[in-house]
Amino acid sequence: MKRILALLTALLPLLVLAACNREQPTRQTTSTRNSEFADNSDDAMPTKGGALPSGHPPMSGHGSTGGKSAPVNVDVSGVKKADGGKNVGEIFAGKADLSGKKVTVRGKVVKFNSQILGKNWLHVRDGSGDAAARTNDLTVTTDGTAKVGDTVLVTGELHLNKDFGAGYSYDVIVEDAKVVVE
């Protein structure tokens, strides 16, 4: 009983915060589960009930910089691959071999969420990957900051199937990254 109470006490602040800030997504009727994760989605936050395809954003309902909750349209053309690094598409394609290893990627910030679970959360795109397959948007956790539209150099450890509990999990995520705004 004490363990259950301790677990509920630990999860309660997260659940309250998520409920207070939740923007209701527009329901889409397609055959793709979690279809709101499309490239130009109005609500790119995860839904409860299973792993997310491609490591999309953290904790439903947390607004991003500027009060927007979904990635904005940022021109990602012309982003050059980091020397010795990978592009977003290569990270998703090689995720099994890269798991647990340090990766470096250059991209533009399309979304920023500040101080969720003690971390800042970025979504980085570089024009590679496939929007339909949801391999064009890389989720990154960091102590650093950046603004939507900034070009950043990200270096951090790649993790697969990361589960933060309460139904929020990520197929691909770069954690505790060093982020340098260029």
What does the radius of gyration come to?
16 Å
* Major beta sheet, strand line-up: 1-2-3-5-4
In the residues, how many domains can be counted? 1
Q: Percent helix among the residues? A: 10-25%
Number of helices: 3
Strand count, sense and barrel status of the largest sheet are:
5 strands, mixed, barrel
The CATH topology is given as OB fold (Dihydrolipoamide Acetyltransferase, E2P)
- How far apart the termini lie comes to 51 Å
The SSE order reads HHHEEEEE
Notes on the structure:
There is one protein chain. The radius of gyration is 16 Å and the shape is globular. The protein is α+β, with helices and mostly antiparallel strands and 182 residues long. The N and C termini lie far apart (51 Å). The protein has one domain: Nucleic acid-binding proteins (OB fold (Dihydrolipoamide Acetyltransferase, E2P)). It contains three helices and five strands, in the order αααβββββ. Helix content is 16%, strand content 29%. Strand 1 and strand 2 form a beta hairpin. A five-stranded mixed β-barrel has the order 1-2-3-5-4.
Protein traits:
single chain; 182 residues; alpha+beta; OB fold (Dihydrolipoamide Acetyltransferase, E2P); globular
Summarize the structure.
This protein is α+β, with helices and mostly antiparallel strands and 182 residues long.
